[in-house]
């Protein structure tokens, strides 16, 4: 900030801009930021989604989000960028030494470095030009002590692995690790699988409420979109009329994407359930009906990729959605078996001990409300990705990504211990039941065309 007193008193500032403004122009017009931000190659970094936005991007989809300014490269911007968007740079007012020091301090303490090709080249050039004596590898403090601890633990780890996986000797252990490594490497790397997922991802959309991103959804069949109930928010429980205007946006794969298809959603919910069904499964879904599906005739209904059956308890999965209310992304990961939940939780706690020090294992366990129709995994998808489809290793639809066991981590950033989806079978059964009750013959007729479903 230009005003050092302001920096001492507030944690954040709010910037207003027009939708079509680019970040560079919006921050310049604001007038509170030092000139170094516009002279160096900077970007905005979203702490929640861990996404960076270059200064040439527009602000249209960044409303209400929280950022920090980071430096991608210390190289100065090209001169032409000083006049970007018709906003002249203030060359007459040089950055004072205090402001320069502030920026350097922020860069040095930045916790989210972004390695670009240009930055890597700069690092290599710097290394070449420095004294060879300074390029010698640095000794890690207490490395001998750490190595001794690891070696001391290795035998116990081997014995634990033998018992858990029923392995008899060292050769069996090596084979086990090779097999596990091979599974991790091979999952979702076959070109055929990637192409299939790319085609299926065309049916995934961003759910927006009156223009603002709210979550993710996907074309389930015909003109009906499936998402989470908690994405929808409040509505009239008697008429099922939505209180706000919803839109399904297909093809949002780039911040400046011009080929997106924004399809309005009808004002009444086609089906909905949020909660536990008596003693049965827990549901969190909403079925939305598009007003006009002519624009997405080339998108496959993902119900065609569903096979009736219980959710898997192990294996690889892939989630496709809009995490952080941003562009469409994929995340391949592995299911955590119900029997391995505590082990996975302990691993997460040990790796994040500085952030979870106020939480005990007991308090974590009390927050776990497990249901038979849950599929649990570790994913980088969190806010904004609710309602994303979850595919198994063969590209079949098995669930709807719904949430995670959240806690407040570093810098009050919401983190998650584990994430989960709810399986498709109970959701589809509830949709069929509600369609019969509300006499939606059009929904039943569309569902009857799928051999994987039994409408009775």
Fold blueprint:
Layout: H1 4-9, H2 23-30, H3 36-39, E1 40-46, E2 51-54, E3 67-76, H4 97-108, H5 117-129, H6 143-165, H7 170-186, H8 191-201, E4 204-209, E5 212-221, E6 224-227, H9 229-232, E7 246-250, E8 261-264, E9 271-276, E10 282-289, E11 316-321, E12 329-334, H10 341-351, H11 361-367, E13 374-377, E14 389-392, E15 397-408, E16 414-423, H12 424-437, H13 441-448
Antiparallel strand pairs: 1-2, 1-3, 4-5, 4-7, 5-6, 6-10, 7-8, 9-10, 11-12, 11-14, 13-16, 14-15, 15-16
| Backbone CA Rg | 26 Å
Beginning-to-end CA distance, first to last residue:
65 Å
Low-confidence stretches: 79-135, 357-366
Please write the string of helix (H) and strand (E) elements: HHHEEEHHHHHEEEHEEEEEEHHEEEEHH
β-strand number: 16
Q: Structural class, judged by helices and strands?
A: alpha+beta
Round the mean pLDDT to the nearest integer and report it: 77
Describe the largest sheet: 7 strands, antiparallel
CATH class of the largest domain: Mainly Beta
- Provide the spatial order of strands within the biggest beta sheet: 8-7-4-5-6-10-9
Number of domains: 3
The helical percent reads: 25-40%
CATH architecture of the largest domain: Beta Barrel
Strand content: 15-25%
Any idea what the shape is? flat
Number of helices: 13
């Amino acid at each position: 900030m230009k005003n050092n007193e302001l920096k001492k008193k507030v944690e954040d500032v709010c910037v207003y801009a027009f939708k079509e403004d680019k970040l560079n122009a919006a921050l310049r017009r604001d007038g509170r930021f030092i000139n170094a931000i516009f002279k160096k190659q900077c970007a905005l970094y979203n702490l929640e989604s861990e996404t960076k936005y270059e200064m040439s991007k527009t602000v249209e989809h960044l409303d209400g989000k929280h950022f920090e300014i980071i430096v991608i490269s210390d190289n100065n911007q090209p001169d032409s960028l000083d006049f970007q968007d018709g906003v002249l740079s203030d060359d007459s007012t040089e950055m004072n030494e205090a402001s320069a020091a502030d920026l350097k301090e922020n860069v040095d303490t930045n916790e989210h470095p972004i390695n670009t090709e240009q930055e890597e080249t700069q690092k290599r050039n710097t290394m070449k030009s420095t004294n060879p004596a300074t390029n010698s590898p640095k000794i890690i403090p207490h490395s001998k002590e750490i190595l001794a601890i690891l070696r001391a633990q290795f035998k116990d780890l081997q014995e634990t692995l033998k018992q858990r996986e029923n392995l008899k000797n060292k050769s069996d252990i090596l084979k086990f690790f090779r097999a596990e490594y091979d599974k991790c490497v091979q999952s979702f790397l076959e070109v055929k699988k990637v192409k299939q997922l790319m085609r299926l991802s065309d049916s995934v959309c961003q759910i927006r409420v009156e223009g603002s991103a709210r979550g993710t959804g996907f074309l389930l069949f015909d003109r009906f979109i499936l998402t989470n109930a908690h994405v929808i928010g409040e509505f009239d429980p008697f008429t099922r009329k939505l209180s706000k205007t919803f839109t399904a946006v297909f093809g949002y794969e780039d911040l400046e994407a011009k080929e997106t298809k924004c399809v309005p959603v009808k004002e009444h919910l086609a089906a909905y359930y949020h909660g536990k069904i008596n003693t049965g499964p827990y549901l969190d879904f909403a079925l939305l009906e598009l007003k006009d599906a002519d624009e997405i005739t080339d998108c496959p209904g993902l119900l065609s990729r569903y096979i009736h059956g219980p959710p898997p308890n192990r294996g690889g999965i892939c989630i496709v959605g809009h995490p952080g209310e941003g562009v469409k992304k994929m995340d391949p990961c592995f299911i955590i078996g119900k029997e391995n939940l505590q082990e996975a939780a302990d691993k997460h706690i040990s790796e994040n001990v500085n952030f979870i020090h106020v939480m005990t294992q007991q308090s974590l366990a009390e927050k776990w409300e497990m249901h038979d129709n849950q599929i649990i995994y570790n994913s980088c998808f969190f806010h904004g990705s609710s309602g994303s489809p979850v595919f198994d290793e063969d590209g079949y639809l098995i669930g709807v990504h719904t949430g995670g066991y959240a806690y407040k981590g570093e810098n009050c950033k919401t983190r998650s211990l584990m994430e989960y989806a709810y399986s498709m079978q109970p959701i589809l059964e509830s949709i069929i039941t509600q369609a019969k009750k509300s006499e939606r013959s059009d929904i039943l007729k569309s569902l009857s065309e799928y051999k994987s479903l039994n409408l009775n």
